[in-house]
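Exercise 7b. Backbone tokens:
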């Protein structure tokens, strides 16, 4: 035998051994895990029942049932606001009204500030709630009473026929 072949055999044996060890490590996680003769088989674990959190009483959700989440008319609960000391007719003016079918909207503007608000029946401005929108006026209500803002400079418009 030649010298080159004699030195080649131990290195080939080492490579084959290293490859076998690498394959064994790669396959190790998928090998079946059976009971070992020296150890008793572990008892099967019972799944524990999930523990439910205690919920508040159903009465705590009364606001949710009174105002369903996906209802278009959902509004926050009315808050007790006191109207300002200035009457609404001296602070705001009615600029326009839109009545289309059952929809009634009004455009109200501040006299001094110039801010504009689009309101519908049930909306609130400075503690005053829009009680009614008619073809030529808007009526506000508060704990102090009712007041009406009328359109200025335009002839009274006849109410549209109801269907």
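Sequence design result:
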């Amino acid at each position: 035998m030649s010298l080159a072949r004699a030195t080649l055999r131990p290195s080939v044996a080492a490579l084959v051994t290293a490859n076998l060890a690498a394959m064994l490590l790669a396959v190790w996680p998928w090998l079946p895990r059976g009971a070992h003769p020296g150890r008793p088989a572990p008892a099967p674990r019972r799944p524990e029942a999930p523990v439910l959190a205690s919920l508040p009483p159903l009465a705590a959700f009364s606001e949710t049932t009174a105002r369903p989440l996906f209802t278009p008319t959902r509004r926050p609960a009315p808050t007790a606001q006191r109207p300002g000391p200035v009457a609404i007719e001296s602070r705001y003016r009615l600029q326009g009204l839109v009545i289309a079918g059952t929809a009634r909207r009004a455009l109200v503007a501040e006299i001094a500030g110039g801010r504009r608000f689009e309101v519908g029946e049930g909306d609130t401005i400075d503690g005053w709630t829009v009680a009614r929108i008619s073809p030529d006026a808007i009526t506000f209500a508060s704990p102090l009473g009712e007041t009406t803002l009328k359109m200025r400079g335009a002839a009274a418009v006849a109410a549209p026929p109801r269907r």
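Instructor comment: Helices lie at 3-27, 62-66, 88-91. The longest strand covers residues 92-100.
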